[in-house]
């Protein structure tokens, strides 16, 4: 797997072997446990960093590893980012010390489905049009800003948790994906699922 890392006007092409992701799973889990205790993000203490915040923390560690010439640590940090953000293509790291300025460039196929499989994440309700429309509006959030990107979330009934849609660089793309997710949820709520 390849991760392009931009620092100022320099670009680093980090080649992370697939095997490293499997071998480093324990290390990645330890990073998550460390972050579970809370973390200082810029001027703010965050009790429970979410996925995007954790990736910003690790991106900061990646910046330090590259600046220190620590190739092994750099590959591990890049591996964590690729593991936690499978759609990640490149990252632009801010050297000014502002963790919120790291930018993630995520790619999704033009017709990519949201992270949640709407069919399996929707209960079999067989609602009428108005009820399905109202329920879909409650279960698919509006597009919101995350750092310099945009995304939406979908409620997953199977796990009882909100699942993030893909992080998009432009609001229009996030809105298009959100509209597709909303339509799929609306139709699934109307139809329900047999059996």
TrEMBL record:
It comes from the Bacteria. This is Uncharacterized protein.
